[in-house]
Amino acid sequence: MKIRLILFFYFFLSQTLVFAQTIVSGTVLDEKSKPLPGVNIFIKGSFDGASSDAEGEFTFETGESGEQILVCTMMGFESQEISVQLSGAQLRLQSLILREEFNELNAVTISAGAMEASDEKKSVILRPLDIVTTPSANGDIIGAFQTLPGTSTVGNDGRLFVRGGDASEVGIYIDGLKVANSYGTTAANVPTRNRFNPNLFKGTFFSTGGYSAEYGQALSSALAMNTKDVAARSQGDLSVLSVGAGYSHTLANDKQSISLSGNILDLTPYQALVKQNFEWERAPHGWDLELAAQSKLSKGGMLKVLARTEAGGMEVWQALPGIDGKGVLVNLKNRYSYAQTNWRKAYDKGWTLFAGASFSHNKDQIRYDSAEIDRSNDLSHLKLTAVKDFSGRVSAKNGAELFVHSYAENLVRSQLSRSFEDQETYLFTEWDWYLSRKFVLRGGLRTGYSSLAEKGWLDPRASLAYQVSENGTLSLAAGRFHQLPVDNFRVLNPNLQNSQAKHLILNYLLQKDGLTFRAETFYKSYDKLVVFQGNPQSPSLLQNGGEGYAQGFDVFFRDRKSLKNTDYWITYSFVDSKRSYNQYQAQVRPDFAPKHNFSVVVKHFVSSLKSQIGASFSFNDGYAYTNPNLPGEMNSKTDAYQNLSLSWSYLPKPNLIVHAAVTNVMGADNIFGYTYTARPDETGQYGSLPIEQSAPRFIVVGVFLTLSKDKNANMLNNL
Amino acid sequence: MKKLSTTLALAITFVFSAFCVDPAYENAMKKQVAAMKTIRTLEECQAVTNAFLRIAEAKPEEWLPLYYAAYLQTTAVFRFDVNKDQYLDQAMELVEKAEKVAVDNSEVTAMKGYVLMGKISIDPASRGQSLSPQVMQLYGKAINLDRENPRALMLMAQMEQGMAQFFGQGPEKACGLARNALDLYAKEEAKVSGDYILPTWGKGQAEQVADACK
């Protein structure tokens, strides 16, 4: 009996469920009351639902009854849940309104000052692969960025110079953590390279001004590089070059990967074959070891470790004007170590947390003629950030940073030494506010305090972007930037305060599949630059007394579409800059800020040859220098600089690359300035020597072989 | 005695609902799998995708509706004029959800590779280098997880074909894989009946790769 009853109720109830149908209908609109087609509308927990049609209308039957939750979802819109009462045969809902969700993919991004290199994001100017394949760069990240707008090539230095600023004004970061001494130590007029291998990074963000409150201690520019995530497979990479060799081994599984690599570099055999302008006692040489590890943590966290240690050196004669013979012998030894770890995790409700710590140690031993100087520099950086996304339209990034920085100089023979230690703390906050998909505002504040300078400061930053056409964006950025003077000045006068810059930038960016056009104009003022008496070798009476400005515009055009298998970009930058700085009492054009800068990079893939052929050409109208035979400072300019570089990459197999590159193919006799005798000769003239290239050309040939022990790959070979 | 039979009956009902697939789910899936084959426009595609998403929402323990929604999002990129990156990102989200429901599932693993292959196709010159190894690894894993899965082999064949073209090599490897995939498709067809809701797509694509070898 009982069982019958149960079965009876069971079937009876299920029958009622089937028959008590309610027809639900309604309209879905967007915020502008336009109909939204394709919205998924359904009763939560059931299969009952429908999609809205072209008029935003939907109708469906449901067997559910009573109080239920109706869900509306659509890609790119915020989901909505409303409670409905299903009782009658019909339920007509008043127009439902869905709010658009804004994210990087569909909303405008601020492009003033910013240039990204990434595979993923949309406002990219350069892709990671481009860095390796730019002929004039020779595999150096910085070399590739020197073909971008706002930069100047200073051929005898090699570092990055941005918009009339000197190289120290560019802050370099890896995964948000500052990298001190990121360039290799080098002798005067021997161009340096960045220490870090471009293959470590999945993307870079390069700003030529007006950048985020996240970055400080950089007057001109921020270059932020982001390391790769977990590697896809285990493999070995062998490289043999005309100047050295290296091997890198990667072990990977789904969750984590670790790479260990070692390189040796020695230009001795190369210099024996190719004639050099400089007289070398010992060609540049060095070794490095690097470890990179990545681990995906449970619940979506990511932990990364990067460590590097290296040693190197060189010994070269530097010719002096008015003196016969080889000149002065400069011997240089460098030891560098860098380690960092960082952790990032995204949480529910729009929170993302980041924590990172880095440490670097640099030691230079310099012998200049009979003088011997040791310099050591340590930097620790701790950083915490928390990002909170409110409703997808407002987001905030807050952070705290601590830098512990020490520097020491030691004159070995006279046993004189001097040093300083500084602790800097920073807090920053930055808010993004999307007023619509086409209009975004960003405001930020950064405060800092230095224990050595005994002073705090505040930097406001603001920017906005407005989408003016389907593919065009106009952005504006402004901000104040502070930076403490370079170590070798601070050690002489620990009371030196921040130098200061203010930026104003207007940018137009047009991006259409395969085409990029970018134009930017800027004004930058400098204040409290360091000036001193005497010459840069022995400065005295250092103080924050200099000031100046830089203004100009730059244009960039890239086309990856019009010509088959061809990708090219053209850059022109105009910089008008003057400043009183170092020994210059009047405002002069600095030697690192040529007025007209032009570059073209062309890459063409030839399928029949399995080869990529590349060419790059850079030009500027010459460097300012002071000729003591004429009145005034910075009163002369060198001849124009030019460099045509060619490269050829041959891929006979997917795992083998043969690469050859020649810089300055035409052998242009570039002069970067002149050095003069300290005193005039008997005719009253100062004798001079040109500062020339270390060699007319640089040729590199390399073979890169990837050995994959991937079991799947092997398995497939047997199929 | 009566008590015992009641308990038994209840127990049977329980066992029934726990071990046999929910017929409402089966029916809903069957209907959409059939509808999927007649899609001609983006609107139809969206409607079927939405229906799979509704099923996924109601049956969070099932991977198949998520899988089909991801499949439709991915194929929409190749068939219709849509925001490709947005569609593929959403497809990836769905695959990742499916992965959590069905750990080490060959079909889901192959689908993940397929979505990434779509990402590469948008900008092969710059994305290929970083994503190709991941795609190859996923297809390799999918093949290992189920040696009878023709889609894993077919997708691997497509990838090999693309790589061979890029590097100017012969199509032999791709052809071999495509032929093996076609054998598996034939085996799969023998299993398929009217009620079959598991994936069966991809034979045409395998034929295309195999055709290139003639």
The gist of it:
The complex is a heterodimer of chains A (719) and B (214). Chain A is mainly β.
Characteristic key phrases:
heterodimer; A: mainly beta; Immunoglobulin-like; Maltoporin, Chain A; 6 helices; elongated; B: 214 residues; mainly alpha; 2 domains; 10 helices; 79% helix; receptor (chain A); TonB-dep_rcpt-like (chain A); CarboxyPept-like_regulatory (chain A)
Amount of beta strand of chain B: under 5%
CATH class of the largest domain in chain B: Mainly Alpha
**Helix run count of chain B:** 10
Determine the fraction of residues in helical runs of chain A and give it as a percent range. Answer: under 10%
Q: Report the C-alpha radius of gyration of chain A, rounded.
A: 31 Å
What percent of residues of chain B adopt helix (DSSP H or I)? over 70%
| Major sheet size, sense and barrel closure of chain A | 22 strands, antiparallel, barrel
Which architecture of the largest domain in chain B does the CATH hierarchy give at level 2? Alpha Horseshoe
CATH topology (fold) name of the largest domain in chain B: Serine Threonine Protein Phosphatase 5, Tetratricopeptide repeat
Q: Count the domains of chain B.
A: 2
Quaternary structure type: heterodimer
H/E element order of chain B = HHHHHHHHHH
What does this structure look like?
- The complex is a heterodimer of chains A (719) and B (214).
- Chain A is mainly beta and 719 residues long.
- Chain A has 2 domains: 16-97, Immunoglobulin-like, CATH 2.60.40.10; 114-718, Maltoporin, Chain A.
- The radius of gyration of chain A is 31 Å and the shape is elongated.
- Mean pLDDT of chain A is 89; it is low at 11-18 and 711-719.
- Chain B is an all-alpha fold.
- Chain B has 2 domains: 22-103; 110-214, Serine Threonine Protein Phosphatase 5, Tetratricopeptide repeat, CATH 1.25.40.
- Chain B has helices spanning 2-19, 23-36, 42-58, 64-79, 84-101, 106-122, 124-145, 150-166, 172-191, 203-211.
- Chain B is globular.
- Chains A and B meet through helix 1, strand 3, helix 2 and helix 6 of A and helix 1, helix 2, helix 3, helix 5 and helix 7 of B.
- Chain B: Keywords: Signal.
- Chain B: InterPro entries: TPR-like_helical_dom_sf.
